[in-house]
Amino acid sequence: MASYLRNWISAVPTLSSLTSTTPAPPEIVEFAPADDDDDDAATVRGSDDESNDIPPAFPSLNSAQRAGKDTSLSSSPIPRVLTDTELMPPPPLPGLAARRPGVPSGLSIASSSLLVPPGASSLAVPPSTTKAPKKASKKVALAPGHGPLDWANLKKSGTDLRGVDSLARITAAQLKEHNKKDDAWSAFSGKVYNITHYLSYHPGGEKELMRVAGRDGTKLFALTHGWVNIDYMLDECLVGFLVPDS
């Protein structure tokens, strides 16, 4: 405890030390309001220091851009308006006068006549699609209860539409024997179908379908309605497959 008090007393500064080390009070300086003339003078005096904050000129005063002949961009902040002669020149004649719709510019008038007929526009529909079909559709009025849905229901009914016990290999001579209205067979893509029951359901009529009775009707079928899925349409009428006579 005694050692602690001695250290504390020794750390307290004495009066003499305080008087010897105390600094003198700061000198009070009074500032008078500055006049306008003094501000101008201060501005002039401080211009040298403020010049360090001004960004350098771009392009530089001694740069190659400023040394060029065309100083219109560097000397004036407003862009120069181009004259008519400096703008894009018009297409050379007779390029514009000789152009025809739908014809490339590299082709001549004589060769372009092969592409676009005289008096026709390039936006016009091609002639091949404007011609009337050679043969109009010959759909006939079917008897009541003989529509596509009726035929589908007949196939599902379990009625025997084949007329044979099993599938067979049928020659062209055998096929030719079935060419009657009550016994009509026809071959399509190598498959022979009994079309007897389908005659009254055919949208084109019985007469048109009888044209292929007793023979191969693949070509006529493709020309008339090749998009029809005949395998699905006559799957319950399949009787065999067409083979050569030999």
Automatic annotation (TrEMBL):
<dbReference type="Pfam" id="PF00173">
    <property type="entry name" value="Cyt-b5"/>
</dbReference>
<feature type="compositionally biased region" description="Polar residues">
    <location>
        <begin position="60"/>
        <end position="77"/>
    </location>
</feature>
<keyword id="KW-0349">Heme</keyword>
<keyword id="KW-0479">Metal-binding</keyword>
<dbReference type="InterPro" id="IPR036400">
    <property type="entry name" value="Cyt_B5-like_heme/steroid_sf"/>
</dbReference>
<dbReference type="GO" id="GO:0004128">
    <property type="term" value="F:cytochrome-b5 reductase activity, acting on NAD(P)H"/>
</dbReference>
<dbReference type="InterPro" id="IPR051872">
    <property type="entry name" value="Cytochrome_b5/Flavoprotein_Rdt"/>
</dbReference>
<dbReference type="GO" id="GO:0020037">
    <property type="term" value="F:heme binding"/>
</dbReference>
<dbReference type="GO" id="GO:0046872">
    <property type="term" value="F:metal ion binding"/>
</dbReference>
<dbReference type="InterPro" id="IPR001199">
    <property type="entry name" value="Cyt_B5-like_heme/steroid-bd"/>
</dbReference>
<feature type="domain" description="Cytochrome b5 heme-binding">
    <location>
        <begin position="167"/>
        <end position="243"/>
    </location>
</feature>
<comment type="similarity">
    <text>Belongs to the cytochrome b5 family.</text>
</comment>
<keyword id="KW-0408">Iron</keyword>
<feature type="region of interest" description="Disordered">
    <location>
        <begin position="16"/>
        <end position="100"/>
    </location>
</feature>
<dbReference type="GO" id="GO:0005737">
    <property type="term" value="C:cytoplasm"/>
</dbReference>
<protein>
    <recommendedName>
        <fullName>Cytochrome b5 heme-binding domain-containing protein</fullName>
    </recommendedName>
</protein>
<feature type="region of interest" description="Disordered">
    <location>
        <begin position="118"/>
        <end position="142"/>
    </location>
</feature>
<dbReference type="InterPro" id="IPR018506">
    <property type="entry name" value="Cyt_B5_heme-BS"/>
</dbReference>
